[in-house]
Write a structure and sequence with these properties.
Layout lengths: L23 E3 L6 E3 L1 E3 L7 H26 L4 H5 L2 H16 L10 H35 L12 H25 L3 E5 L6 E7 L3 H25 L9 H23 L4 H32 L6 H9 L1
Parallel strand pairs: 3-5
Antiparallel strand pairs: 1-2, 4-5
Helix pairs in contact: 1-3, 1-8, 3-4, 3-8, 4-5, 4-6, 5-6, 6-7, 7-8
Length: 314
């Protein structure tokens, strides 16, 4: 008996034909069904997975180093002026975003599929809401200096905690609704490619998936707009211009990711997602914290009230 796909072209001079199972395909001679190759973004077989792992670990360690620098110089003007508690929270959330890359690598399972987008969605919401809180505090701080303004009572931890809590809770609710109604799951796609079975995550609900990404986009856009208008306020400690640039990088990465994500299939879709996470997280670190670390480590004379005043005066 010949085992081969059921096709009219294969029925010529054949008495008996059999269609191969979904997990098999016919060999070159069309006389035997052979197992299809199972593929996913593997640590051992895909160089790109090893590269992503290495880059993610290095970036996480670099962010941890920056957190240590900020902790060591916590009483210096440049750290205190830019709300060090929000900086700590932002650095920790960026570290977690680098680590959540490992949820996307390796063979998917129902658990990792459910944790992938929801985890990075919540972590990025905390990070972007921290930047949003920083931008709002810059605006409030400037307005509070005007005579008769009562803005001082809104400054500090009360305002920042409210902004971060509110923005993060909305994303958490979206993820909870997603997981409770139509959660992601692992699936085997044996039909898209003739000789390959793709082990991948089915998002379950496309609406929920794009709602998570869309909400991150809304937060980033609002943070960008506020920081953009606050970047020229006459405050020598103003970091709004760095936030503006970081949000521009963040939005550019994810906007570029969408067409690349929709035009790929299988493990390359995961590779695009991982690249977007690493690139946007690294953009936040470089845009916001590298200038401060440069002053702290290499220009300590500017990390004083006199130095910052003198630099502004020039």
């Amino acid at each position: 008996m010949n085992l081969e796909p059921l096709s009219s072209s294969f029925l010529v001079d054949r008495e008996n034909c059999m269609k191969c199972r979904d997990e098999e395909w016919s060999n070159e001679k069309k006389d035997l069904c052979v197992p299809k190759l199972v593929v996913f973004l593997s640590y051992t077989h895909d160089t790109i997975a090893a590269v992503y792992s290495s880059v993610s670990i290095l970036c996480c360690l670099l962010t941890c180093l920056i957190l240590g620098i900020f902790g060591h110089y916590k009483d210096t003007p440049i750290v205190r002026a830019n709300n060090r508690d929000l900086s700590y929270l932002l650095l920790v959330s960026i570290m977690l975003s680098f680590l959540c890359v490992f949820l996307f690598l390796g063979r998917p399972s129902d658990v990792t599929c459910r944790l992938r987008v929801t985890t990075f969605g919540v972590i990025f919401s905390v990070a972007i809401s921290s930047l949003l809180a920083k931008s709002i505090i810059v605006c409030v701080a400037f307005k509070a200096t005007k005579p008769g303004n009562s803005g001082y009572k809104w400054m500090g931890t009360k305002l920042s905690n409210s902004v971060i809590s509110l923005c993060s809770i909305v994303q958490i609710k979206i993820c909870v609704i997603w997981l409770s109604t139509c959660p992601p799951f692992q699936e085997e796609d044996a039909h898209y490619f003739q000789d390959i079975i793709v082990i991948q995550c089915n998002e379950g609900s496309a609406i929920a998936f794009y709602s998570v990404l869309g909400y991150l986009g809304i937060l980033a856009a609002v943070s960008f707009i506020i920081a953009f208008f606050a970047r020229t306020l006459p405050d020598r400690f103003n970091e709004a211009k760095y936030i503006t640039f970081s949000m521009l990088v963040f939005c550019s990465v994810w906007i570029a990711m969408i067409p690349a994500y929709l035009s790929t299939k299988g493990k390359y879709m995961v590779a695009v997602q991982v690249f977007a996470i690493i690139a946007s997280s690294a953009g936040l670190v470089v845009s916001i914290f590298f200038p401060k670390c440069y002053i702290i480590l290499f220009r300590p004379e500017l990390n004083t009230k006199v130095g910052l005043l003198g630099n502004k005066a020039r």
